[in-house]
Write the structure tokens for this entry.
Amino acid sequence: MPVNDTLPQLQVYNHYRRRKENFVPLDDQRTTMYVCGMTVQGPPHMGHMLAFVAADFIRRCLEYLGYPVYHVQNFTDIDDKIIARAQELGCEAGELAQQNIDLFFEAADALNIRRAHVYPRVTEHIDEIQAYIERLIEAGHAYAAQGNVWFDVRSHARYGELSGRDIDEMRSAGRVELDESKRDPLDFALWKAAKEGEPAWDSPWGRGRPGWHIECSVMSMKYLGQTFDFHGGGRDLIFPHHENEMAQSTALEGDFVRYWMHNGLLTLDGQKMAKSTGHFFSVEEVLSEFDPDAVRYYLLRGHFRHQMEYSRERLAEAAAAYDRMKRALILLEETLADSNLGIGVAEGRTSPEGLDLEAAADRSLAGFRAAICDDFNGEAAMAALFELVRETNNYLAGRSRTVCDRASVSKVLDVLREGLSVMGLFEKVGRATVPEELRALAEEREQARQSRDFARADALRDQIQSMGFCVEDTPEGPVLRPV
RNA sequence: GGCGGCAUAGCCAAGUGGUCCAAGGCGACGGUUUGCAAAACCGUUAUUCCCCGGUUCGAAUCCGGGUGCCGCCUCCA
């Protein structure tokens, strides 16, 4: 997708500086993006998918604007929760992780999330993690004690910068993992000594496994370099995860992330969805009831930085809006496929109404682009598209296809498709093929209507409906649509 | 206790100094169209942006003070 000079400057809200900034990639050949992925102790829930749909949307915007994106998203495939859950189920931790990774991909595919370029896993980077920990120890930022290795938060002047915390003011003693071998209660684990029966790797400090935060430092820098453009994840990761990650990654050399982005959390009854408390809706549950593409649209509503309350009612509401757009697309495609389209209009001429419609399409596209360039404002971007839908319907309503302007109609469809592809929506939606037998039934019903046998016509309509299609009578004849 | 976020119509939601007497969607009501529907179109649905003060020629937007909700400070997208 070409970038051109008429596009507005992209602005992004950088959590690190707490303000919108002009986006300038480190390398204009490659915009780098790291997204904190799941700890695969269980299947993905809606809150996870909100984060990944948001990241996917950001990536699509960047690509649309002409920034080639290199996208890395990790899997945390070993940690306390996974070990505990696997023991409960009586399976290997690795097996459990793999199952949930498969489920993640299933959900991501359903929601039309593009695949990242790399999905690094902790268990595949143990050597690199150990090597980095050694360097941290040598540099005096970490220390080994009783088989654990702790990051020394007091050794790093910038600790607390990202989350806006002051080490001395944190009332966290007693809430943080208690361990006598720590010099400061806030010191966090780079390497955890294994208990009996736990999956473990040999290390200079004894058998154990990586702490939670070190993987993201090591893997992001391995695939993207010491300094890269975007780092995304949920707000709940700001502290301690991202704070710790930043500390680890900046302790030895250079800058780390250039633009930190955090999505708002999905709540349920006003409380954050969280797998650890069982307070969530699984993706599976939701996708069994709603069109996945409509679910994606739902997750894309509002601004991703804001918290969003999950409810079936809101989802149904979003699905209704989704249908409005879908109908408009189908109507446009049907119109363009109509052999009578524009036959009553002189070649090369566009009616005043057609010119107005084209102007509306231009406004819509400009509005859409301005919106996504303003910190990826998907809500405002969709509004620009919906305005065009209204103007298009207005143009098409009651106008014979013979006097419609093909070029204008075609332009509208192009604009809508262009915008919607950035949203990652309706990419598989087009005109439905109607089975021959249904076409015959519809024809039969039309004859019944002509002879004013409405009882029979309604019976046929019910029959068609029971076969998954609804009949809409238009001035051009009946049209069948999948329900 | 500390740090951060949010509060806009019946509901969801964009908008962070004038172009806003406030987008877009859902819903509701009235009308057009229809055999009836469906869809679509037209109109109505916030003189007002949680409250109180202040700054300004001008504020939903800035400042101060409240109130309410949420997140983080422990694993978490």
Summary: The longest helix of chain A spans residues 312-337. Residues 313-423 of chain A form a domain with the Isoleucyl-tRNA Synthetase; Domain 1 fold (CATH 1.10.730). Chain A has three domains: 11-141+150-169+211-310, 313-423, 436-482. Chain A is about 45% helix and 15% strand.
